[in-house]
Design goal:
There is one protein chain. By secondary structure, this protein is of the alpha/beta class. Helices cover about 55% and strands about 10% of the residues. The strands form five sheets. Strands 9-8-10-14-17-18 form a six-stranded mixed β-sheet, with helices on both faces. Strand 15 and strand 16 form a beta hairpin. The longest helix has 20 residues. The radius of gyration is 31 Å and the shape is globular. The two termini are about 45 Å apart.
Length: about 850
């Protein structure tokens, strides 16, 4: 938040746009006065010894500087107390300085959400505001308090009065008027006007080198972009503001930027990262004594809990927010909390309680005149009517919300989804299907507006419930192939667009899928999975037919996967294990289609959700002698049917192998790998010296990779540490040698990898977590493997967990031997794994051979 700051973004449910809370302008004493004495470290001692009546400029300035520094650090309670004391000390002996203390006290109160008290402070002795700057600042502060109390006409009048003092002057005080006008427009839902005013403020702040005010403008631009549902743009503004705040050590501004960035991530569907940011911002606000922002980040965290299905925890957080909002008499926050409690009670089936909250809301919403609030209350009433089977009333309400010009895309999306479910409940499948398609078209239009990979990756999460209901509807009608096409429509969209396979234009027409042709072309049986909240599905696709099998719901499958993954991470699991989860997962996931898979046949698995974290090869086949599925099938993972259909053979290459590893340790976190050189030497023996390029030790660095003629290589292999980022998967990196003074100069990031096209037949990341640790709806596991597929690799081998430095050289040596014998990458990797599995060493355990998984792209 910059100079005193203000709104930061607040959130609603996916169907409702959250109200925003930007950053108000902080009022500063003129630069000349503040810089008159830079040594403020000793001012507390000075305050303790100066007599109350002492009005010498030095002592007054020192007292003010100390209180103001407390404010800048975010210690609002202490700053307010010192400002009030300063006013009382100097009101008679030095009215000019007393006015500065009074303005500072009002700022503290507004930042704490205590707007009525701020107005009382500003009105206590209005005659002491003698100079022009003090008059402007008192009016803009009062306008801010009126804005937060929904007294918009009073706020407009005060800002108009302040604007008169700014003709024709243009200075910092008048910039604060511009910022306040933007905040008023933002609060009233006038987003284009707000954006223009914030851009004017940003331009002025940058021209005058005011970094705090610049941060305020950046955060407020983020809020405005959020309200327009331009979440990727909002991320950019918030990230820029956060960077300045963190670099400058401004904890209060860091908190506001973090929370706004969190809401932008939430809007993009990245709930995990959003929750992390919300909780960090909430704790900072609590520590700083900022009730207003504490309640906001408490509320935004509750949106994540609600989306996760933890309705009781969400309701508790909303009730806490309501109490805090009432304690500071914040009209908008009271409205928000009541709306959120009403929606949560509807989801919990507590319809009477939800109706009671709506009754409290009616007079508050009508008085404020905010159309978005009115639409949200309307939507909640429609949900209650639908739950009570008052179908005509519910349909009329949803139609009004959908068609209202003020509805934002997320609100229209929610109304259309509710309409589709209403029609489905009535048995009107034709209308239901049409409305599902309309909702998906609304979503695809919003998705098409996103510009960067980071934003597109999580965004599909917002439409997952709609796709889930639509697929289930088609299956119920016996339209299994259409349901498959619809399910594949949302798969690997970001990956396909990045490879120019998908135009990215809004479309809800499933690509003309000929699933059997995909299986024939791939010479494989394809297992396509869909994990739904109520029902999951498996399509088993062979060249001759496509079969549909019904599976348990996602909440029933996921816990088994998580338990079995933990078991696999133990090196001592017995080879002849009878792990109940491994057996149960095979029976559930593979068993229904087992008769369609030929012995030693190739199986392409297209995963969904938590399945992306599971190595299917390790599932236990029951029978006379339980054994791992890898012994029966050659298993490959792929992103989508659409991408398999578009697959092309690798282009001829002039060189064969790019081998990089045995890098110098950049720091103790990444010690040198003792077996790296041995692994590289083994791999090199499978290529002619003229066909290989090797980078090792200091030469093994990111610059060397990025500067290489990457399209020339059929094989690219890394022997190095790897790191995976859950919150920012494109920040996942291969650890190489340091090249400069930058903290991360030793990292080859996923976001760099995707920007340098390759045409490799196989990329191998002999590093821990090469596959990634996080699965995105529709995109699957995202990390280094995904990045190399996005760059153009035809096959990528990555690790699902930390690979053993003991077994990996042996595994890779045998895999390259298989490639030299003419095997495909998947067959060569399988052969190498089986050699370990059938050995008499400890490497028989899946911990050693199973982390590496092959992903097939083009």
């Amino acid at each position: 938040m910059g100079a005193p700051a203000s709104p930061v973004s607040e959130s609603l449910r996916p169907s409702k746009p959250r109200k925003a809370w930007g950053v108000p302008a902080r009022i500063h004493v003129s630069r000349r006065v503040l810089l008159g004495r830079s040594q403020v470290a000793w001012t507390l001692a000075l305050l303790l010894v100066v007599p109350v009546a002492d009005s010498r400029p030095g002592s007054v300035q020192a007292a003010y500087n100390h209180a103001h520094q407390l404010f800048l650090r975010g210690d609002l309670t202490q700053s307010q107390q010192e400002a009030a004391l300063g006013y009382r000390r100097f009101v008679h002996s030095n009215p000019e300085w007393a006015a500065k203390f009074q303005l500072l006290e009002a700022q503290d109160l507004i930042w704490r959400g205590m707007n009525e008290e701020a107005l009382r402070v500003l009105g206590a002795k209005p005659s002491i505001f003698k100079n022009r700057e003090a008059m402007i600042d008192s009016l803009t502060l009062a306008a801010a308090a009126d804005t937060y109390l929904a007294r918009f006409e009073e706020a407009e009048q005060k800002l108009a009065q302040a604007q008169k003092f700014c003709q024709p002057a243009i200075d910092a005080a008048c910039d604060r008027v511009t910022l306040r006008r933007g905040l008023l427009a933002l609060t009233r839902g006038e987003f284009p006007e707000a954006r223009q005013l914030f851009l004017e403020s940003l331009s002025f702040d940058r021209a005058n080198g005011d970094r705090r005010a610049e941060t305020s403008a950046l955060v407020n631009l983020s809020v405005t972009a959020q309200q327009a549902e331009h979440y990727d743009e909002a991320v950019d503004w918030a990230t820029a503001g956060l960077q300045i705040a963190q670099d400058s050590g401004w904890e209060d501004l860091t908190e506001s930027a973090q929370g706004n960035l969190g809401w932008s991530c939430f809007g993009l569907g990245d709930k995990e990262k959003a929750l992390q940011l919300f909780l960090a911002a909430e704790q900072t606000a609590k520590r700083l004594g900022n009730l207003r922002f504490q309640l906001k980040w408490t509320s935004t965290a509750a949106y994540v809990y609600r989306d996760q299905g933890d309705l009781e925890r969400a309701a508790q957080a909303y009730r806490k927010s309501l109490e805090l909002a009432k304690s500071i008499n914040s009209h908008q926050d009271i409205v928000n909390a009541l709306e959120d409690l009403a929606h949560t009670d509807v989801l919990s089936g507590k319809l009477d309680e939800a109706g009671a909250y709506l009754q409290q809301l009616d007079p508050l919403v009508d008085a404020a005149g905010n159309r978005l609030d009115q639409l949200d209350v309307m939507l909640a009433r429609g949900e209650i009517a639908a739950a009570r089977r008052q179908d005509q009333q519910a349909e009329a309400i949803f139609r009004r919300v959908e068609s209202d010009a003020a509805s934002q895309a997320s609100m229209r999306l929610g109304a259309e989804h509710l309409l589709a479910k209403l029609y489905e409940a009535q048995g009107n499948t034709v209308a239901a299907e049409g409305m599902y398609r309309s909702a998906l078209a609304t979503f695809e239009t919003a998705r098409a507006d996103l510009k960067n990979e980071d934003s597109k990756l999580p965004f599909l999460t917002n439409a997952t419930p709609i796709y889930d209901d639509y697929v289930r509807l088609l299956v119920k009608q016996g339209r299994a192939e259409e349901a498959l096409a619809a399910a594949d429509q949302g798969r690997a969209r970001t990956l396909a667009q990045g490879l120019a396979l998908d135009s990215g234009k809004p479309s809800i027409k499933p690509a003309a899928l000929h699933a059997g042709e995909v299986a024939r072309k791939s010479v494989a049986t394809v297992l396509f999975y869909w994990l739904g909240q109520q029902q999951s599905y498996l399509w088993a696709i062979t060249p001759k037919k496509t079969s549909l099998f019904t599976l348990p719901a996602q909440p029933d499958i996921t816990p088994q996967i998580e338990r079995y993954r933990k078991a696999l991470l133990q090196p001592a699991i017995a080879h002849e294990a009878t792990n109940s989860d491994a057996l149960a997962l095979y029976r559930t996931l593979v068993g229904p289609a087992a008769d369609l898979i030929p012995a030693d046949g190739k199986v392409i698995v297209i995963c969904d959700g938590a399945l992306s974290l599971l190595n299917f090869e390790t599932l236990l086949v029951p029978g006379p002698v339980p054994h791992y599925w890898i012994e029966d099938a050659n298993v490959v993972s792929a992103p989508s049917l659409y991408m398999l259909a578009a697959a092309k053979a690798p282009a001829p290459t002039s060189k064969k192998l790019l081998l990089m590893g045995d890098a110098l340790s950049p720091n103790p976190d990444y010690p040198e790998l003792p077996m790296a050189r041995a692994e590289m030497e083994k791999i090199a023996t499978h290529f002619a010296p003229a066909d290989e390029t090797v980078y090792e030790l200091q030469a093994a660095n990111s610059g060397a990779y990025l500067a290489s003629r990457l399209r020339d290589y059929a094989y690219i292999h890394f022997v190095a540490h790897g790191v995976a980022s859950r919150t920012d998967p494109l920040d996942s990196a291969i650890i190489l040698s340091r090249t400069g003074v930058a903290d991360d100069s030793f990292k080859l990031h996923a976001r760099e990898i995707i920007q340098h096209p390759i045409d490799a037949r196989l990329v191998t990341i002999s590093a821990c977590y090469g596959g990634g640790t996080r699965s995105y709806a529709g995109e699957g596991l995202v990390g280094l493997s995904w990045a190399f597929l996005r760059a153009g690799a035809h096959n990528v081998i990555g690790a699902l967990w930390e690979a053993s430095d003991d077994s990996t050289p042996q595994l890779m040596d045998r895999m390259y031997a298989g490639l030299a014998d003419g095997l495909t990458p998947s067959a060569a990797l399988r052969q190498a794994k089986l050699s370990l599995l059938h050995s008499d060493s400890k490497f028989r355990q899946p911990f050693y051979w199973a982390p590496f998984q092959i992903y097939s792209g083009l």
